Amino acid sequence: MDAHPDDALLALALAGWPDTTRQRTHAWLERDGHALLGLHHPDYPALLRRSPSPPQWLFVDGDAGVLWHPSIAIVGTRLPTPDGRDNAREFAAAFVHGGLAVTSGMAAGIDAAAHIGALDASGPTIAVLGTGIDVPYPPGNRRLMERIAREGVVVSEYPPGAGAQSFTFPHRNRIVAGLSLGTLVIEAAWRSGALITARLAADAGREVFATPGSIRNPMARGCHRLLREGATLVETPEETLGALAPVAVAFADDLRARLDVPTSSRIAPQHALPDMDVDTQRLWDAIGHDPTPMETLVMRTGLTAAKVASILLAMELGGRVVSEHGRYTRKSS
Is the pTM of this model over 0.90? Predict the structure, then answer.
């Protein structure tokens, strides 16, 4: 990715910031893995662009390709119970195994636990900061932020050196919601930033999920409030993955249309797959030369619907399979 953005975009992103911020930003952009994506940059995530108020630019530290991976947001209280923290890690790991990335705001508590759960499961995770791209918040999460930048991606709409302000975290929440197919809230107080993220997700037309809790747990009241307002109650990761599977397929259709990926099976030679992992190989073997619906591929492979949808998306973008009327076929010459 080009680390040297358009001069006009950089000037716009730094408008109103002091000279020290400008100098720090130029130095930051010189480093490998750092970039500034404008709203119309080809690497700018399509799902975020479709949200009601996408940021005009994103500072990116890490693999920008992760921003195009189907993801789910996990958010919640900064003061979780032990069960809440365990649930965040376990749900995140299950989502990764199901083919999704995990997006969150890198706050203490549920956010950090979700990022760690995804990383420990060797999956992609996206951290959205409410501070400058090089400013961890809370400061104790510096090592976590560095790990996410190495193994996933960190993004912010604020330039290097920008500190936290009261309005920056609600602004961050709209990016968390906009990047994700759905948002899961695990423990939240009656008044909580996690509820803001959930409402922003609903406003963007995305799915909202919440886990129930004890009526004696004050950190369950926000989730119960969401459930009364129409969020989907989930008790297991599998329930969430099942609900998101059709959304993931629609996301793949949207990307195919935006990238002008052909849908005719009478084009391009069949591609070898030398870099397949076990699940990709299993799915590749299950795809024949006759159009096959996704539910049949799920049955043939034993993989989850979300995992199949994620792998199919990668195969389509790689030009290896095509889809027509919801059925998938290997490309053939």
Answer: no
